[in-house]
């Protein structure tokens, strides 16, 4: 799981020169829960079918040239990355 490799994949897209940005999200396991309690671990199980549906829907939106996601599953510990997401976004007009 490497964000730099995912960015290279977007840059290799034939429409990359039309892109106005590459949007990245890297989810991490926090040291504390939202209510302030310590977190020692987190178990992640992805719904791969739904993830593929979301990526397909995202790629079908106007202005999106690519959408990629990788999920680290299983037992994760604080400060570990668990969900890198990359979207290659094409701006079709100036705002």
Explained architecture:
The protein has 95 residues and is of the alpha+beta class. It has one domain (3-90): Molybdopterin biosynthesis MoaE subunit (Aldehyde Oxidoreductase, domain 3). The chain has helices at 3-11, 48-59, and strands spanning 19-28, 42-44, 64-69, 74-76, 81-90. The protein is elongated and about 45 Å long. The termini are far apart. The model is unreliable at 91-95 (pLDDT under 50).
Distance between the termini: 34 Å
What fraction, in percent, of the residue positions are helical? 10-25%
| Structural domains: how many | 1
What's the gyration radius in Å? 16 Å
How many E-type strands? 5
Strand content: 25-35%
Number of helices: 2
Strand order, largest beta sheet: 1-5-3
CATH architecture: Alpha-Beta Complex
Which fold does the CATH topology refer to?
Aldehyde Oxidoreductase, domain 3
Regarding CATH, which class?
A: Alpha Beta
Shape: elongated
Compact summary:
This protein has 95 residues and is an alpha+beta fold.
Keywords:
alpha+beta; 95 residues; elongated; two-stranded antiparallel sheet; 3-stranded antiparallel beta sheet; Aldehyde Oxidoreductase, domain 3
